[in-house]
Amino acid sequence: MHAQITKKVIETIPVPDSRELLLRDTELRGFAVRISLTGAKTFFAEGNFKRSRQTKRLADYRLLLVQFLSKSWEEDTSNLAML
Questions:
Q1: Which fold is adopted by the domain 2-82?
Q2: According to the 3-state scheme, what is the secondary structure of 19-64?
Q3: Side-chain-side CA neighbours of residue 55 (13 Å)
Q4: Measured between alpha carbons, how far is 76 from 68 in angstroms, rounded to an integer?
């Protein structure tokens, strides 16, 4: 599923009933949120580095606001190569 990830979208998206939901941002490439069956929302960054797909967990929704994550996105993507 693709959408611009905003605080309103995150708060209103329903908890999935059969498997976890992956919501990718349409504005920030590689930025996404995973919503588990328990309702936990986790932000992460993903990208291709050295010919392999890498994913880095950024934070749980309950700890950080969407605006903060969006602004720090570019800083965090530089750290993906160090995984």
A1: Double Stranded RNA Binding Domain (3.30.160)
A2: CCEEEEECCCCCEEEEECCCCCEEEEEEEEECCEEEEEEEEECCCC
A3: 9
A4: 12
Task: Give this prediction's pTM.
Answer: 0.64
| CA dihedral over 15, 16, 20, 25, signed as positive or negative | negative
In terms of Cα–Cα distance, which of 18, 65, 24 is closest to 44?
A: 24
**pLDDT tens across 3-53, in order?**
888 888 888 888 888 889 999 999 888 899 999 998 888 888 888 878 888
Residue 28 tokens read as: 């920030």
Tokens at residue 53, please?
Answer: 């797909």
Structure tokens at 2: 């693709």
According to DSSP, the β-strands at 21-25 and 2-3 are parallel
